[in-house]
Amino acid sequence: MTADTKPIVTRFAPSPTGYLHIGGARTALFNWLYARRNAAADGSKFLLRIEDTDRARHNEAAVEAILDGLTWLGLDWDGEPLSQFERADRHKQVAHELLKRGKAFKCWLAGEELDKAREEAREKNIRFTSPYRDGGEGEGPYSIRLKAPIEGETIVKDEVQGEVRFPNATSDDVVLLRSDGTPTYMLAVVVDDHDMGVTHVIRGDDHLNNTPKQQQIYEAMGWDVPVFAHIPLIHGNDGKKLSKRHGALGVEAYRDQGFVPEGLMNALLKLGWSHGDDEIITREQALAWFDLGGIGKAPARLDPDKMANTNAHYIEGIADEDFADAIAPFLEKPPSEAQREMITRAAPFLKPRMKLLSEARNAAAFLLLERPFEITGKAAKPLKKDGALGHLAALAQKLETVESWDPATLDLAVQTYAEENGVGFGQVGPPLRAALTAGNPAPTLGETLFALGRDEALARITAAQDSFSA
């Protein structure tokens, strides 16, 4: 770190009113990446603040859900999460400091009187200005308003949106403290960001209109204004604002669908950020490549199919020995030790067939059958054909003598049996597959036999013979 640079400090500041929204998760990811890419070299930080000033809507379970979602995604934060509510006294202190400096004023305008003054300003198409801005005393409780500039423009230099100009004549004097003494969001967020040392505010562009007012508070206090970067919101595939009709909105819903953390992280990263034509971007690559210049100005579109395709890549990357643990939460019941061994052997064949871990319930169903199991319906038809049981018996004898129990050798053994006995594969393969899988989806016969293992495969063949010869 050179003398003229300083560590980057970013923050994620969710409201604890529900789950970790997919848009919030993306915002957290961008902030995490921007800080973590430099952290090893210069001590940059990613901080977490819970904006819990609205106590009526505060939900402690929602706080835990947000923390769990961030942890599952692998987005670690520095220090303890900060509670905005607990900093109310500090917020009030700053409001009164602004009042002392003449940068704010007491305003007794409230209720119907305030509504009437605002309406009159709208009708005349002029800026609403409190009659107490330049002095005067009222009665009873008062709010504290920022004495914002009236003329000229407030210019926000945004790393994503570019230079955005806001005419001061169209902006009210923002309330800092309400008449009941509670600080407003507009004040609290500025004070907290300043006190936390936040250097870069990366957030959704729905906050862009708040930024000139917040910038005015920074300037009134003589504080450094952070770098702003407002990210376009996420829209549905139809181009409309994201809502429940577009599918899962919370991180936990994607986790329950069977996304792996790396898969969802990659999908979130691609919602509004790009690095050339790269689609698969690992965590390590993202940390090396991420910059604010890669964020687009247009709203990102949520494409569930594309997200699932991205996730499929990361499912294939799960180590075979870890695959049983990965899919266990999505199965009807925890697999036995013998079933876990079968799942591990089958992992190389099952992973390419899955986009979501939840698909394991269907993909691994043939492994999880517990003898004795019934073979019914269409699956039973091959076993009822003339000669089918005889072929099964002979195949069992041949398979029992196979020395190398691997997919290629097993496939060859079945093909060789058909050729040696002058029968078509259609007379041998279907009854064998039915005996082994009961009609459940499965990979090739060689892979199926290998995954089941010699003892289980032969036991299933024998059980089918006994069942259909009775």
From TrEMBL:
A motif ('KMSKS' region) lies at residues 241-245. Signal peptide: none annotated. The keyword DNA repair does not apply. It comes from the Bacteria. ATP binds at K244. Belongs to the class-I aminoacyl-tRNA synthetase family. Glutamate--tRNA ligase type 1 subfamily. This is Glutamate--tRNA ligase. The gene is gltX.
